[in-house]
Amino acid sequence: MRRIIREIGRERIDKLFRMAEKVFHENPELADRYVEIARKISMKVRVRIPTKWRRRFCHKCYTFLVPGVNCHVRIRSRRSTHIVVTCHKCGNKMRYIVKRGK
Ligand SMILES: [Zn+2]
Question: Which of helix, strand or coil describes residue 23?
Answer without folding.
Answer: helix
